[in-house]
Protein: Enoyl reductase (ER) domain-containing protein
Amino acid sequence: MAPLTNGRVLFNSVPTGFPEPGKTTVYDNSHTIDLENVPLKGGILLKTLVLSIDPYLRGRMRGPEIKSYAPPFTLGEPIMSHGIAVVLRSELAGVNPGDHIYGALPHEQYIVRHNIAGLRVIENKHNLPWSVFLGAAGMPGETAFMGWREYARAQKGETVFVSTGAGPVGSLVIQIAKEEGLKVIASAGSDEKVKFMKEIGADVAFNYKTTNMREVLTQEGPIDIYWDNVGGETLEAALDAAGVNARFIECGMISGYNTGGAPIRNLMQVVAKSITISGFIVSRLEPRWMKDFGEYMLPRLASGKFKYTEEITKGLDKVGDVILAVQKGTNKAKAVIQVADE
Amino acid sequence: MAPLTNGRVLFNSVPTGFPEPGKTTVYDNSHTIDLENVPLKGGILLKTLVLSIDPYLRGRMRGPEIKSYAPPFTLGEPIMSHGIAVVLRSELAGVNPGDHIYGALPHEQYIVRHNIAGLRVIENKHNLPWSVFLGAAGMPGETAFMGWREYARAQKGETVFVSTGAGPVGSLVIQIAKEEGLKVIASAGSDEKVKFMKEIGADVAFNYKTTNMREVLTQEGPIDIYWDNVGGETLEAALDAAGVNARFIECGMISGYNTGGAPIRNLMQVVAKSITISGFIVSRLEPRWMKDFGEYMLPRLASGKFKYTEEITKGLDKVGDVILAVQKGTNKAKAVIQVADE
Structure:
């Protein structure tokens, strides 16, 4: 078989504001690969099927001099994100052709790895689409479930406010909270997303671009729990609308990712109202909650009790556009790149 | 006996920046009182001995339209703060002349109260000066002890950073942390305060006005626990110098009290580092910790194991100046107004 093009998405330059397709990242098709003969040296050959595009990727698009929890991308090398690949060939004990591999993968059509450090073979007992393992059944789903279990201390009848409630994390937080008997207020940036949030049970859902957020929160609050994915003005409004002993779960602050951080001016409310703010990175919670997550989430997704949405874009060459859409919030649902069919 | 002047400190106008003596508050000597004949109607007559001047008083100097945890002062009426008074006369069962009363008192030389709601008779088994019940043995001491017990989750060998470490709260946090085997970094605003912080055990003590705080924290950190009394730039520096799973205890944010709030630009660190920020008001912790507080703190103060400093100013007419000094940090130690001798 003749060598095939092995398309890749390379980190090309550090963005100062929003990441620019073709500049921040570039699609490169200069590499080829001979699938039958490429030497594996005891490793495995993977074919990438689906890749996840997540808000946190913006944080990795930085110079190596800036420290943060996830390492920066390397200029000239493929960017990475969670994905699913299928094993085409294997010289590694315990991994067989046809196995599916989950983990942080380089944005590359075909991948040779000498080991599976950081990756794992996944089963799919409930026959969910593979893309779901990048959303509700994967890292975003874990984020919602584990962050809630660890920090919410939710009581039936309490009120939770969820920002980006139509996203893969927020939409699961809404559904978990409703199952536990809370009143849910949820915000998102389009009427279509508001409709989805109502479908999955939000008691109050609004479009923050066209609604006076502070009025809604004042009327529907006080807030006992705030699930924050955005930071900035929304966090300020939530602090002002919080009740005594409120719990704020800080999952992300996308409003500041492309502006160098959005200032918070009323943090004194944490003193006045005895608020606890808990930030977290899901990987640090996995050791404690991974088993519970699978038992809780997979049956609910398979039965349709918990709903999710996806926006699947075909082709690795579209990665730059989808990254930008996720940063701007113009994507319609959990963003997935379909790199190849099985 | 002829009527005596009953001096008072009145709330006169809402400040926009720092409170101004003679404008924000005024000393008024237009009232008189006949101690022997003033009718008590079943109540008590108190003679005020000492009054506490605390940072939080700034928050009560606001218009009635702004909600916060402590009610606003009433224009034209005496301001209030924690104090100790002695009972001169009593028609109330269970309260006797010579008893000492602790609680929030109006700034007034003599007080007629019809009940003791919000106040309590205190004993002084260890023969501490009464002023100590406004500092280390009172609300500031409770704040240090109860906030630490509730939120620090301290482990021997960890590093704590204490801001305003020479103040009545911070100086006790330092001593509690040293007793529990932590490394203590502490900051204050004068060399004299730095000296005191070293005397009470701080491993690293610095004057934030003359020292590069970020350099100290980078070199001596990462911080596992941050005890915050100031907010603003100090909190930003602490967020940047924090380690993973750090606990931030938010006791106050005086840097913003006179400026409308100091913005925090790097709150995203709570996500990146899985930081928990816990704000609190000590009165909400009292039900849980009051008994432990007395058993822990009073013997340590009486034996001299725990040290404290006080700056006692004589005369109710000085209240406005002392309030301003506490807001600016130019006071040298826990500020107490001595209104009268026993």
